[in-house]
Amino acid sequence: MSTVDHPLVTATGLAKRFGDFEAVRGIDVEVNRGEAFGFLGPNGAGKSSTMRMVAAVSPRTGGDLRVFGLDPDVDGPRIRARLGVCPQQDTLDNELTVRQNLQVYGRYFGLSRARVRERATELLEFAQLTDRADDQVEPLSGGMKRRLTIARSLVNEPDLLLLDEPTTGLDPQARHLLWDRLFRLKQSGVTLIITTHYMDEAEQLCDRLVVMDQGRIAAEGSPAELIGRYSTREVLELRFVPGGQEAVLPDVVDLAERVEVLPDRLLLYTEDGEGALAAAHNRGVRPISSLVRRSSLEDVFLRLTGRSLVD
Fold first, then answer.
1. Residue 268, helix vs strand vs coil
2. What is the pLDDT of residue 45?
3. Where in the numbering of this chain does the ABC transporter domain appear (predicted)?
């Protein structure tokens, strides 16, 4: 079998402890070449700890881990040479220009000065920062800094790009622009591993993902598979003044396959949201507002853990 057929990352029983705290509790993961793989979960689920082990910067406490078929505990430098890492916080050098941030970083990987200049030009275009190439980093917007951080992580033409919460803190326009850049990367053959607590981001970017909660994997599959397995086609949201939803729960509980009670609303899981809404109205249920929407990964997480992703 050729190496192309081997998973780029294989984890079996992977664990990470900090003293008595178990951040990652024996997870099994495979990431295949050319796919965008996601870790979806709330803060503290163990996503970043897993990424640091894959990045060969944090030794595992237990289990087995192979990246490019190599053991990070033994072959850390060889693995890191083939990785691109985009950390959760931007670590750009504010004393340098946009272009210099790329060029200096490229020299760390032993690229020649000529190749570094060439690569910087390519990456500035990719990140849509060509017109800001000679500007200082400090005045850039959050979205521009994030694109520059991702561009910098690509300077060594990595086989695998690790992105830890890539769009946290960005406005919707900046997020969508970043998603477009990442989609283009995947199309060009770069394998992506993404951690996120945004369900729409996971749905947009990931071919396959695991839902993590409290250091364990709660479910695995494509976004569509997970939604099909754990939720219904539609969700009817009925909003009330806080506390008012409890009073009408008996009137609607039989209108859906499942009802979730949240502090200010009821979520009715059904194949026909409009039908359920009409039936609720016929029974005298009068919410402040109502919304029929398609199921999302947020609903999957709520089903699996009993709480919202953004609790």
1. strand
2. 92
3. 9-239
